[in-house]
Design a protein that fits this description.
Elements (H helix, E strand, L loop, with lengths): L2 H4 L2 H26 L3 E4 L3 E5 H7 L6 E11 L3 E8 H12 L13 H26 L3 E3 L3 E6 H9 L8 E11 L8 E9 L3 H8 L5
Antiparallel strand pairs: 1-7, 2-7, 3-4, 3-5, 3-6, 4-8, 7-8
Helix pairs in contact: 2-5, 4-5
Length: about 210
C-alpha cells in the first residue's frame, strides 16, 4: 500500500497526542483500581516494520506477557499490549497484593491472570476511546485475549490475517509509573496498533490529514 512512506512526523505527533490523552484516561482508571497515584505518558510513537516490532519485543524467542484484541467498527485493526515478564509480574503483585506472584513459571494463579486481563482492558480501552473521540469513528474492542508466550508466537498469530497486505505497525511506547517510585522502576510497555490496510487512510482522513 505504501502508506508508511506517506506518514510524516506531523501524523505521528497527532497519534502521540491521542496516545497521551488515552494514557491520561488509563492512569485515572488505574489509580482508582490500585488506590495510589499512577502516572502514564507516551514518550514516542513511530511506524515500524514487523521485523522491528519483533526486535522491540526482545526478539522472537523472548517470553512476554501480551494482551491482544481486535478492533471492530469503521476502522478495523488489531492491537497488542506487550510487557516484559518481570515488569508484568511486578505490576500484578501490586494489583493483587501478593508478593509471590510471578509470570516466570506456570501455572499462574487465576487472580493474577484476571488482574492482567483487567490491566490490558483498561489500557487498550483508554487508547481506543481516545482514538474514537478524536476521529469520531465508531471503534469497538473485542474481548482481550491474554498470552504468556514467546514474542514470535504471539505477534506471528496476530499478524496472520494482515501480513499479506501490510508489513508495518504503529508503536505507541507507554511508560507507567507509581507515585514515589524511582523513574528507573517505571513499567515500560509497547502498544502495537495494526490498522487493517484500508484503515490507515480512514483514520487520518477523519483527523483531517490526507495521506
Amino acid at each position: 500500500m505504501g502508506y508508511e512512506k506517506q506518514i510524516t512526523s506531523m501524523h505521528l505527533d497527532i497519534l502521540k497526542e491521542i496516545g497521551n490523552i488515552g494514557a491520561g484516561h488509563a492512569a485515572t482508571a488505574l489509580s482508582t483500581l490500585l488506590n495510589k497515584k499512577i502516572d502514564m505518558k507516551v514518550p514516542s510513537v513511530k511506524v515500524v516494520t514487523f521485523d522491528e516490532m519483533m526486535d522491540m519485543a526482545g526478539g522472537p524467542d523472548n517470553v512476554v506477557v501480551s494482551v491482544f484484541l481486535r478492533i471492530e467498527g469503521e476502522a478495523p485493526g488489531s492491537m497488542f499490549f506487550l510487557l516484559p515478564v518481570e515488569q508484568a509480574s511486578i505490576y500484578i503483585r501490586t494489583m493483587i497484593q501478593d508478593v509471590s506472584f510471578s509470570f516466570s513459571e506456570p501455572p499462574y494463579s487465576e487472580i493474577g491472570l484476571s488482574a492482567m486481563q483487567e490491566l490490558g482492558n483498561i489500557l487498550s480501552g483508554s487508547y481506543l476511546s481516545s482514538l474514537s473521540d478524536f476521529t469520531n469513528l465508531k471503534l469497538l474492542p473485542s474481548v482481550p485475549a491474554l498470552s504468556v508466550d514467546m514474542a514470535g508466537a504471539i505477534i506471528g498469530f496476530g499478524l496472520l490475517e494482515i501480513s499479506q497486505e501490510s508489513d508495518f505497525a504503529i508503536v505507541i511506547d507507554t511508560a507507567l509509573k507509581e507515585e514515589d517510585v524511582d523513574e528507573s522502576e517505571s513499567v515500560k510497555g509497547h502498544f502495537f496498533l495494526l490498522p487493517d490496510p484500508d484503515s490507515f487512510e480512514i483514520i487520518f482522513h477523519s483527523l483531517g490529514v490526507q495521506l
